[in-house]
């Protein structure tokens, strides 16, 4: 740190130089984040100094959190669900599993997740000393139910299903997982960090949320397809007693029994989430998701024209293109300033068609993809 501070102008110049090094989203197909909706930015700015960790000082912000959780609860099929706004999918997954584990007296338990689960579950194993058992996937890259069932034993504290997998955007058969969870009397946590703001707005009725009786908790991330500001996550529980198992005692705060993992929490995030959900409403989100799905199909159709097949037809707005050397193709595309990612198994190029994606960017990308593939023979 400097001995003497520098002027505001110099600070802003320094910041601007760094900001220019950041990429702009328009050539990014690798991210599950997107620029926040303009109303989220306005809301965020207004509430920047507020702290949800001490809600008695900021009752307005606390009410925004309550209402945002209520809107998500309704969206997820159970208006009475309770929960809180977290920093994102990782925290929500940690806390959901911690709540499940805290319901048991033993500490050497396990959880059963699909092999497609986000890497946050590996962190959970480490943090909570749980054995993370990974169930096989079927040909559609959904969890194989018999594999999942075979991994459950009397030390299993939760079964986990993914609604919108990180790599392939696939949705696990939550309904059938619910039957297994009910049979064995274990929690069923649904990680819908990505799918939470997508699946409710897709055509067709997916039974994947609290409408499935056995679902005990859901992770949903407003800072992904919810177009809120970062960090904006959500964690919802069906039963208040599960949320209560996360409580700590903090006598010096205005809330004596906080449930969140972090102490100080941004009221700005709550304001941003509240603002986008109220501003767009279901109709607005349906339009956004519809556009992302149209672009996903456009990407698949265009890829097929250059002889590349998708691994699965897009279920959500994640497109995966089957190829022998996706890493090589990714490197070639990087030289053309496209940011894409790859999957592990099966090997594929992975593209996420987010609210910032456009028909123009998809078409430009497809031109480059065709060229790269042709040159590589
Ligand atoms: C399915 C799923 N769960 C959890 C996460 C973790 O979310 P975050 O990066 O907000 O912690 C992600 C991130 O992409 C995800 O795709």
UniProtKB/TrEMBL annotation:
InterPro entries: GrpII_AminoAcid_Decarb, MfnA, PyrdxlP-dep_de-COase, PyrdxlP-dep_Trfase, PyrdxlP-dep_Trfase_major, PyrdxlP-dep_Trfase_small. It catalyses: L-aspartate + H(+) = beta-alanine + CO2; L-tyrosine + H(+) = tyramine + CO2. The keyword 4Fe-4S does not apply. It holds the Pfam family Pyridoxal_deC. Pathway: Cofactor biosynthesis; coenzyme A biosynthesis; Cofactor biosynthesis; methanofuran biosynthesis. GO terms for molecular function: tyrosine decarboxylase activity. It is an enzyme of class 4 (lyase). Keywords: Decarboxylase, Lyase, Pyridoxal phosphate. Its cofactor is pyridoxal 5'-phosphate. The modification N6-(pyridoxal phosphate)lysine is found at residue 224. Its EC number is 4.1.1.11, 4.1.1.25. HAMAP family: MfnA_decarbox (MF_01610). Belongs to the group II decarboxylase family. Sphingosine-1-phosphate lyase subfamily. Belongs to the group II decarboxylase family. MfnA subfamily. This is Probable L-tyrosine/L-aspartate decarboxylase.
């Amino acid at each position: 740190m400097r001995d003497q501070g520098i002027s505001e102008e110099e600070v802003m110049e320094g910041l601007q130089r760094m900001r220019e090094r950041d990429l702009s989203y328009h050539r990014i197909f690798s991210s599950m984040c997107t620029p926040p909706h303009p109303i989220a930015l306005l809301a965020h700015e207004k509430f920047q100094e507020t702290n949800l960790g001490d809600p008695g000082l900021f009752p307005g912000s606390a009410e925004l959190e309550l209402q945002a959780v209520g809107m998500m609860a309704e969206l997820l099929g159970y208006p009475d669900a309770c929960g809180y706004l977290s920093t994102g999918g990782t925290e929500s997954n940690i806390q959901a599993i911690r709540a499940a584990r805290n319901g048991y007296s033993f500490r050497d338990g396990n959880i059963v997740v699909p092999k497609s689960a986000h890497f946050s579950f590996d962190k959970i194993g480490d943090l909570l000393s749980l054995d993370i058992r990974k169930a096989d996937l079927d040909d559609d890259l959904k969890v194989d139910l018999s594999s999942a069932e075979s991994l459950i034993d009397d030390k299993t504290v939760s079964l986990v299903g993914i609604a919108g997998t990180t790599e392939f955007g696939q949705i696990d058969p939550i309904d059938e997982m619910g039957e297994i969870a009910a049979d064995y009397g274990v929690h069923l946590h649904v990680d819908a960090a990505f799918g939470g703001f997508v699946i409710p707005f897709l055509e067709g009725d997916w039974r994947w949320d609290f409408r499935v009786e056995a679902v005990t908790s859901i992770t949903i991330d407003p800072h992904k397809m919810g177009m809120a500001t970062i960090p904006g996550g959500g964690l919802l529980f069906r039963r208040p007693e599960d949320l209560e198992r996360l409580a700590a005692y903090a006598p010096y705060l205005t809330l004596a029994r906080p449930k969140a993992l972090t102490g100080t929490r941004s009221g700005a995030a709550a304001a941003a989430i509240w603002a986008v959900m109220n501003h767009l409403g279901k109709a607005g989100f349906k339009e956004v998701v519809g556009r992302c799905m149209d672009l996903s199909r456009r990407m698949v159709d265009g890829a097929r024209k250059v002889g590349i097949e998708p691994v699965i037809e897009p279920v959500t707005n994640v497109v995966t293109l089957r190829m022998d050397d996706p890493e090589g193709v990714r490197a070639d595309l990087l030289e053309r300033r496209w940011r894409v990612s790859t999957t592990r198994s099966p090997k594929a190029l992975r593209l996420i068609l987010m609210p910032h994606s456009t028909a123009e960017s998809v078409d430009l990308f497809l031109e480059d993809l065709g060229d790269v593939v042709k040159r590589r023979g």
